[in-house]
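Following up on my earlier thread - several people asked me to post the actual chain instead of describing it. Fair enough. Here it is, all 132 residues.
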Amino acid sequence: MRLIADSTVLIDMWRLRREPHRLLQLRSHLTEPVMPWQVLFEFARGAYRKGVTDAALRRFLAPFGTLHITEAQVWRAARIEADLALAGETIGSADTWIAAAALETGLPVLTQNTRHFTRIQGVQLIGYSILP
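Reply from S.P.:
Thanks for posting it. Predicted structure:
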C-alpha cells in the first residue's frame, strides 16, 4: 500500500536497523513508502547533526520516494495551521506540512505520533508499535 512515512518511521528504522526483528509490524506497512519533502529535511538534518555521512543517509533513504511540494499543499498547510492556531491547538509546522501532503494526495500517514494528526479532519492514520 502506498503511504506517507512520518519522521517517526525513519527515526525508528534508523535506531533499530541492527535489530530488524523489533520492526516487524512497522516493516509490514512499508510496501510503497513515500516521504514529503519536510520529512526528508527533518530526518536528514538530524542525521547530519549526529555525523551520519551523506552516502549512508542516501543509501538508507533510497527505498523511500519523495513527495515534492505543490501549490495546493501550500494553501492546505496554511489553512490547517491557521485553523489550528485559532482553536489553540497548534501541532508544529512539520506535522502541518505532512498533513497537507496527506490530504492533497489522499495517502494515509504511518506514524507513532497519532496525537497531532488526529486534530486534523480527514487525515488517515496508520499507527504502529515497536516490539520489545
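DSSP finds seven helices and five strands in the chain. That should answer part of your original question.
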